[in-house]
């Protein structure tokens, strides 16, 4: 099995209400100097495939990411 890590993030320029909420909460807690906050998700998948990166990319294109508003990266973890 090969572990693949997929990171899905909102595209730049797309409204990120969760990131804005975190930014506001950090300011409310007294944290200063915080710029833009973006919130995404990390998905770890154990795959038994000849090309795990390609398989994970297909998964992202079909299900894991909404390519209209999200970008994704695929990293094969040794």
Quick tags:
elongated; 2 helices; alpha+beta; Mth169, Chain: A; three-stranded antiparallel β-sheet; 78 residues
Question: What's the quick description here?
Answer:
This protein is of the alpha+beta class and 78 residues long. It is 32% helix and 31% strand. It has one domain: Phosphoribosylformylglycinamidine synthase subunit PurS (Mth169, Chain: A).
How does this structure look, described?
With 78 residues, the chain is α+β, with helices and mostly antiparallel strands. The chain has one domain: Mth169, Chain: A (2-Layer Sandwich). The chain contains two helices and three strands, in the order βαβαβ. A three-stranded antiparallel β-sheet has the order 2-1-3, with helices on one face. The chain starts with a strand and ends with a strand. The mean pLDDT is 96.
Distance between the termini: 10 Å
Write out the CATH superfamily name.
Phosphoribosylformylglycinamidine synthase subunit PurS
Count of discrete domains: 1
Largest sheet: 3 strands, antiparallel
Percentage of β-strand residues: 25-35%
Supply the number of helical segments. 2
| Inertia-based shape | elongated
Sheet with the most strands: spatial strand order: 2-1-3
Quaternary organisation: single chain
CATH names the topology as Mth169, Chain: A
Mean pLDDT metric: 96
Number of strands: 3
Instruction: Identify low-pLDDT runs.
Output: none
Just give the CATH class. Alpha Beta
Q: If you compute it from the alpha carbons, what radius of gyration comes out, rounded to the nearest whole angstrom?
A: 16 Å
């Amino acid at each position: 099995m090969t572990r693949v890590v997929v990171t899905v993030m909102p595209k730049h320029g797309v409204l990120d209400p969760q990131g804005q909420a975190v930014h506001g909460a950090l300011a409310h807690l007294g944290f200063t100097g915080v710029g833009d906050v973006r919130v995404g998700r990390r998905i770890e998948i154990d795959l038994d495939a000849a090309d795990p990166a390609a398989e994970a990319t297909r998964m992202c294109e079909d299900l894991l990411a909404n390519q209209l508003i999200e970008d994704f990266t695929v990293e094969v973890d040794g």
